[in-house]
Write a structure and sequence with these properties.
The structure is a single chain. The protein is an all-alpha fold. The protein has a domain of 60 residues. It is built from 28 helices and no strands. α23 runs parallel beside α25. It starts with 5 loop residues before the first helix and ends with a helix. It holds the Pfam family PPR_3. Keywords: Repeat.
């Protein structure tokens, strides 16, 4: 195979002309982006036999290097066959894959669940010393467990020494983490106990935390309690992460009493809670309308060396807006602005303020404050403002918001049209309902089922509704 010389260059240009109908007057264009040209060759001959693809690639006058090979593979992250063909061809062309390149092809094959091809690549790699690193190993575990091939993932872990990798506690935690992340918590815990007994790994608190977090993420508080008791009974003692994990799970399940007991027990044992733990407790207390207790914990945070962040303030502001304690709300917002840094109000803060407004004139004050603090508008804020103006029936506010969304590029999106359609329907404006629905469909947006149902109930033929939608409606009404 030749990669230089006039003959191969002419052949490649001829191939390029055939595929893309491009003249040869601009050689610079032909070679300006080799990865793009290879991508197009693979794309237009995707279904051809492998040997034909190899012949087409053989005619490329390109310098195969790590950057180019990686670029081509990354362009095919969701299309395994061209990536695999190109990877194999590059090796026949004399290219020796780097660790990053091998990691990329393994990730692509794993993502598409092409495990036979993945094992072939992996077996070839095992013959080269030092090629498999921790990043690649984590990728393999993630793809095996993500496809629920738990046994394969465990077997791979047992091959670590074959790849020149140590089999220590950190590597074992990585395996357990991926098992738990893909909801194989029971298998992870069984493996955890078996390995601790057979291999003599030290059961440190970090490894226990992985198992506890797995049950907590699943929402299984019963199993989480059992693991908590096992941790307390073990030589390991809970750390801040252990407390944070369990307290967060308890508050999510509404078990505030138990969470508070843990929180207070933590303080009694001299273990300082971090901001995550305090935020969980404050948010749960606010949800139960126990605002004074939440404020007490909030005020004590700084004294314990735990500074509040924007999430702390947002929890208090959200619930105080609901009970209309607006004087206290704006006192907290002023405090956030004075603290600056991690306490500066964000989009969530301003959305809480906007939702509490009673009349159109107040919107500009909140948005002005938002702009002064350097908080940018986004689609959530625009759609909230649009909904408010529609609720207040403020046509001028609706028009200006709609135009600003178009200018800024933040919409109008499907939510915007849904708001307009449903609010106009509530106000009895059928023509406006139809107009916005037709415009929405014309832009290629798929209406929400409730919106489709609403428009169908009007018994009006609407432009843009597909024949299938009309047939479904006729079948439903029996016409």
């Amino acid at each position: 195979m030749a990669y230089n010389g006039r003959s191969s260059s002419r052949a490649y240009k001829g191939l390029f002309q055939t595929l893309f109908n491009v003249g040869t007057s601009s050689p610079r264009f032909l070679h300006s982006c080799p990865a793009l040209l290879i991508q197009n060759i693979l794309k237009f001959r995707r279904d051809k036999p492998t040997d034909q693809l190899y012949r087409a690639l053989d005619q490329c006058d390109v310098d195969l290097n790590h950057h180019l090979v990686l670029d081509v593979l990354q362009r095919h992250r969701s299309d395994w066959r061209p990536a695999h063909v190109f990877f194999n061809w590059s090796k026949t062309a004399g290219y020796e894959p780097s660790s990053d390149v091998c990691n990329e092809i393994l990730d692509i094959l794993g993502k598409m669940q092409r495990f036979q091809e993945l094992h072939q690549v992996l077996d070839e790699m095992s013959n080269r010393e030092g090629l498999v690193d921790e990043k690649m190993f984590a990728t393999l575990l993630r793809r095996f467990v993500g496809a629920h091939k738990v046994d394969d993932a465990i077997q791979l872990f047992r091959r670590r020494k074959e790849f020149g990798l140590e089999s220590g506690s950190e590597a074992f935690r990585t395996l357990l983490m991926w098992l738990c992340r893909f909801k194989h918590v029971e298998e992870a815990e069984t493996l955890f106990h078996n390995v601790m007994k057979k291999k003599g790994f030290s059961a440190d608190i970090k490894t226990w935390n992985v198992i506890l977090n797995g049950w907590c993420v699943l929402g299984n508080v019963h199993e989480a309690k059992r693991v908590w008791r096992d941790i307390v009974a073990s030589p390991c003692k809970p750390d801040v992460f252990t407390y944070a994990t369990f307290i967060k799970a308890l508050t999510k399940k509404g078990k505030l009493g138990m969470a508070l007991r843990l929180f207070r027990g933590m303080l009694d044992k001299g273990c300082k809670p971090d901001v995550v733990i305090c935020n969980c407790i404050i948010d749960a207390l606010c949800f139960k309308k126990r605002i004074p207790e939440a404020l007490e914990i909030f005020r004590d945070m700084s004294g314990r060396g735990c500074e509040p962040n924007v999430a702390t303030y947002n929890s208090l502001i959200k619930y105080m807006c609901k009970i209309r304690r607006m004087e206290k709300v704006y006192e907290l917002v002023d405090e956030m602005e004075r603290r600056n840094g991690s306490c500066l109000p964000n989009v969530v803060t301003y959305c809480c303020l906007l939702k509490s407004l009673k009349e159109p004139g107040e919107v500009h004050e909140v948005l002005g404050r938002m702009e002064r603090n350097g908080c940018s508008m986004n689609d959530d804020v625009y759609n909230l403002v649009l909904r408010l103006y529609m609720k207040w029936d403020d046509e001028d506010g609706v028009r200006k918001t709609w135009e600003e969304m178009e200018r800024s590029g933040w919409g109008p999106d499907r939510r915007s049209y849904t708001i307009m359609i449903h609010e106009h329907f509530e106000k009895g404006r059928v023509k406006d309902v139809v107009r916005y629905f037709e415009e929405m469909v014309a832009k290629g947006m798929v209406p929400e089922p409730r919106t489709e149902k609403l428009v169908s109930s009007l018994n009006i033929r609407v432009k843009g509704r597909t024949e299938k939608q009309e047939d479904v409606e006729e079948e439903r009404t029996g016409l």
